[in-house]
UniProtKB/TrEMBL annotation, chain A:
<dbReference type="InterPro" id="IPR052893">
    <property type="entry name" value="TCS_response_regulator"/>
</dbReference>
<dbReference type="InterPro" id="IPR011006">
    <property type="entry name" value="CheY-like_superfamily"/>
</dbReference>
<dbReference type="Pfam" id="PF00072">
    <property type="entry name" value="Response_reg"/>
</dbReference>
<dbReference type="InterPro" id="IPR001789">
    <property type="entry name" value="Sig_transdc_resp-reg_receiver"/>
</dbReference>
<feature type="domain" description="Response regulatory">
    <location>
        <begin position="9"/>
        <end position="136"/>
    </location>
</feature>
<keyword id="KW-0597">Phosphoprotein</keyword>
<protein>
    <submittedName>
        <fullName>CheY-like chemotaxis protein</fullName>
    </submittedName>
</protein>
<feature type="modified residue" description="4-aspartylphosphate">
    <location>
        <position position="69"/>
    </location>
</feature>
Automatic annotation (TrEMBL), chain B:
<dbReference type="InterPro" id="IPR050351">
    <property type="entry name" value="BphY/WalK/GraS-like"/>
</dbReference>
<protein>
    <recommendedName>
        <fullName>histidine kinase</fullName>
        <ecNumber>2.7.13.3</ecNumber>
    </recommendedName>
</protein>
<feature type="coiled-coil region">
    <location>
        <begin position="193"/>
        <end position="231"/>
    </location>
</feature>
<dbReference type="InterPro" id="IPR005467">
    <property type="entry name" value="His_kinase_dom"/>
</dbReference>
<feature type="transmembrane region" description="Helical">
    <location>
        <begin position="172"/>
        <end position="194"/>
    </location>
</feature>
<dbReference type="GO" id="GO:0016301">
    <property type="term" value="F:kinase activity"/>
</dbReference>
<keyword id="KW-1133">Transmembrane helix</keyword>
<keyword id="KW-0597">Phosphoprotein</keyword>
<dbReference type="InterPro" id="IPR007891">
    <property type="entry name" value="CHASE3"/>
</dbReference>
């Protein structure tokens, strides 16, 4: 069972509101019109994804794509990634790690935990904008499975 | 202590020698006295034999009795000769023997006279001579003289014996005391040796304990340093990442701002400039000149900030990279370094001279490439345009270490900057070349990780020599091998 890509909701977990705004702007410039739900800390993002009981049933039937920064004030993005991938209701949501860290070990760990894409934020803004726009193009063609009923 | 023991032993030996000498003298004296006694007895009995023979003959007129007389008369001379030999060197005794000799002569004359008269048949005359008692007196005198000879000799013998006994007692005492003393000395020596041994063992234990605690202290200190170092590494890493995030915003929104400004500018371009009032022309100038200038400054600053952060990040990464010691041919490595700048060097007419063959080293190849790459880059970068550039690279063997020198004839470094140039973001001299002041800081960080030292000798206007001393074989302790950042 697949969803119409337009129905896919993008969950953006990014503590830097400036970054979040720049990411959103560039995704929109790529022509992506999907709803974007922003979170600036790990706790509220997890509450949304897994529900208040942490079981993940809240995400049942949702079609989400998660944009994840690793440097969060209350926890590291790796913790969120691990929980999302360990929960049956959320484990199939594509996770795009978008962060400043380009440490080899960190990248490996994210892929080991089940991250689908790992992108290092380019510091140069033109490269950054290009990367996000390409990501937006990628979002427009990607198929996101609905959560298990 | 031992000297006292040795002296005692020497004393005992001397004492024994002295005693042995005394004993020898005494036994010689005993022998002499015995011989004297025997000879004296013999002389007396010979004289008596002669007298007995004479009496027998005078009584019986039988010539048979003359035989013992004749034998004894001859033997007396031999006995007297023996006596003379025995008393040699003793004037008193010689006197006695002389008197004995004359007495014996007189006695024999008396005997010979009576026998002659008898033989001549004048028996009465012979008997008359005997009756005078002269023969008897002579014999008594001879007995007395012999007594005189023997009695003092006996007395002397007794004295000598007594002396020897006392000497023997003394020797015994000395030997006993000496023996006891030697035992004491040996005991003391053994005690001292034991004491020394115990002290030595204690000292050794103390040293061992000290050594152990020293090792413990060194490892504690090393751990502290390691922790501090790790802390700095983490700090540098975190700082560079956390500084980067706001910078992304500054750069990003500057770009957004620029894009917005471009659309405003495009809009203004469509408005005819001649219809502007004062406010509109002010806005036009801001859009066309002031704002682009401001944006340009923001960009330049953020770009520079970005480079500095990248430099810190690179340095912190460098500190956490795992070193991999392997055999490296410095000849090949430095030829590669020189080849990578050949194009630049030939443009400047600069010669790079490697005084080969350079030795092998066991170290981290990547770090060595960066170190020498940086030094050669710098040498080319800061050549003096007034003269033809010349860069020489050579090596020196210092036992367990190798010293490499990279010499140039470039612009040189002022003495007050010789230490400063190795600090991060610090540069020296005329600032007419691009750079952030990172290269040499990186060189020093790398060389230190390779357990080496880097220093510089330089005269401004003449050139610089960078010296790098490295261990021939880099051995990594477990603490400074792998660190994952």
């Amino acid at each position: 069972m697949t969803h119409d890509p337009q129905a896919v909701c993008i969950v953006m977990i990014e503590d830097d509101e400036g970054h979040a705004r720049l990411i959103e702007k560039n995704i929109r410039r790529a022509g992506v019109t999907n709803e974007i739900v922003p979170f600036t800390d790990g706790t509220s993002a997890l509450a949304y994804l897994l529900g208040p009981d942490g079981s993940g049933q809240a995400s049942m039937g949702r079609a989400l794509l998660i944009l994840l920064d690793l440097n969060l004030p209350d926890m590291t993005g790796v913790d969120i990634l691990a929980k999302v991938k360990a929960t049956p209701y959320t484990k199939r949501f594509p996770v795009v790690v978008l962060t400043t860290t380009d440490d080899r070990q960190e990248i490996q760990r994210c892929y080991d935990l089940g991250a689908n894409v790992y992108i290092t934020k380019p510091v140069n803004y033109e490269s950054f904008a290009t990367a996000i726009r390409q990501l937006g193009l990628f979002f427009s063609v990607i198929q996101v499975p609905g959560a298990e009923a | 202590m031992l000297l006292a023991g040795a002296l005692t032993l020497l004393g005992i030996v001397t004492m024994s020698g002295w005693l042995a000498e005394s004993t020898r003298q005494y036994s010689w004296s005993v022998g002499r006295t015995t011989n004297l006694r025997v000879a004296a007895g013999t002389l007396l009995s010979q004289l008596q034999d002669a007298e007995v023979g004479q009496r027998g003959y005078l009584l019986t007129e039988d010539r048979q009795y003359l035989k013992p007389y004749e034998a004894a008369s001859v033997a007396v001379d031999r006995t007297i000769a023996t006596l003379r030999r025995l008393v040699e060197g003793n004037p008193e005794e010689i006197g006695i023997v002389e008197r004995l000799t004359s007495l014996a002569t007189d006695k024999r004359e008396e005997l010979a006279q009576t026998i002659e008269l008898m033989e001549a048949g004048r028996r009465d005359e012979a008997l008359a001579i005997v009756r005078t008692g002269r023969g008897l007196r002579l014999m008594d005198e001879a007995r007395r003289s012999l007594g005189d000879l023997i009695t003092p000799a006996d007395a002397q013998l007794d004295t000598q014996l007594a002396a020897m006994n006392s000497q023997a007692r003394q020797s015994l005492w000395v030997a006993n005391l000496g023996g006891m003393f030697i035992l004491l000395v040996v005991g003391a020596a053994v005690w001292i040796a034991l004491q020394y041994t115990r002290d030595l063992v204690q000292a050794q234990q103390a040293i061992q304990a000290l050594n152990d605690s020293l090792e413990q202290r060194v490892s504690d200190r090393t751990m502290d340093l390691q922790r501090a170092n790790d802390e700095i590494q983490r700090f540098a890493y975190i700082v560079s990442h956390d500084l980067r995030a706001p910078l992304v915003n500054v750069m990003g929104f500057t770009s957004e701002f620029e894009a917005g400004l471009a659309s405003v500018s495009a809009h203004l371009d469509r408005q005819p400039a001649d219809g502007d009032d004062a406010i509109a022309s002010e806005a036009r100038r801001a859009v066309k000149e002031d704002l682009p200038e401001a944006i340009a400054f923001i960009r330049a600053s953020t770009t520079k900030m970005d480079r500095l952060i990248n430099a810190i990040l690179a340095l912190s990464r460098q500190g956490s990279r795992t070193l991999n010691p392997e055999p490296v041919s410095m000849q090949v490595l430095l030829e590669n370094v020189a080849a990578s700048v050949r194009h630049q060097a030939s443009e400047l007419g600069c010669v790079i001279d490697i005084a080969g063959p350079l030795p092998q080293i066991v170290s981290d190849r990547l770090a060595l490439e960066q170190v020498f790459g940086n030094l050669v880059d710098n040498a080319i970068k800061y050549l003096d345009p007034a003269r033809t550039g010349r860069i020489s690279i050579r090596a020196r063997d210092d036992g367990s270490r190798l010293t490499f020198e990279v010499e140039d004839n470039g612009r040189g470094i002022a003495p007050q900057d010789h230490e400063r140039i190795f600090e991060l973001f610090r540069r020296s001299g005329v600032q007419d070349r691009p750079g952030e002041g990172i290269g040499l800081a990186n060189v020093r960080a790398l060389v230190r990780r390779l357990q080496g030292e880097v220093g510089v000798d330089s005269v401004p206007g003449q050139g610089s020599i960078f010296r790098i001393s490295l261990p021939k074989i880099l051995t990594l302790s477990p603490e400074n091998t792998a660190h994952d950042a």
